[in-house]
Amino acid sequence: MIGRVRSRLGMRFYATARGREPVRDWLAELDPATLRAVSEDLQTVQIGWPLGMPLVRKLEPGLWEIRSSVPTGIVRVLFTVVGAELVLLSAFAKKSQMMPKDELAVARKRMKDILRG
Q1: What is the domain range of residue 89?
Q2: Where are the alpha helices (DSSP H) in the chain?
Q3: 86 occurs within a structural domain
Q4: Is residue 22 part of a domain?
Q5: Rounded to the nearest 5°, which phi and psi values hold at 113?
């Protein structure tokens, strides 16, 4: 029996109309240990997609979160998949059990922007 061949997803950052990339900017502000942990998780998702818990959780149709445990706590990166690309929409340090409604709203809006073209 031949196993399924997985292809690596490309990755891009959501860009605003002015060309700003909020997730890239957020990552640039992280301390080295946190950046390393988040980068490793992003790479794992790129290589192993589709993945599930505990690393990736589906939030709603077309929207997922990468769940990174980092030295300073918990980090989430919200993303969508368009074709063969992982599109990073939003990222934040999680401070409670609940998903911040404002972060979810931002990710939904950005996902709609991406899907509209």
Answers
A1: 10-116
A2: 22-28, 32-48, 101-116
A3: yes
A4: yes
A5: -60, -45
DSSP letter, residue 3: P
Over residues 2-55, the pLDDT tens digits come to 555 556 899 999 999 999 999 999 999 999 999 999 999 999 999 999 999 999
Q: Per the structure, how many domains does the chain have?
A: 1
Number of CB atoms found within 10 A of residue 68's CB: 22
Quick one: tokens of 108? 């939904």
pTM of the complete model: 0.91
CA distances in angstroms from 95 to 50, 92, 98, 100, 109, listed in the order given: 27, 9, 8, 9, 22
Going by the DSSP 8-state scheme, the letter that residue 30 receives in this structure is S
Give yes or no for a contact between 13 and 26, defined as CB atoms under 8 angstroms apart.
no
The pLDDT, as a whole number, for residue 86 is 96
Q: Report yes or no on 4 lying in a domain.
A: no
Residue 5 in any domain: the answer is: no
* Pairing verdict, β 63-70 and 56-60: antiparallel
CATH code for the domain of 78: 3.30.2310.20
Residue 14 DSSP label: -
User: Which has the closest alpha carbon to 69: 32, 33, 22?
Assistant: 33
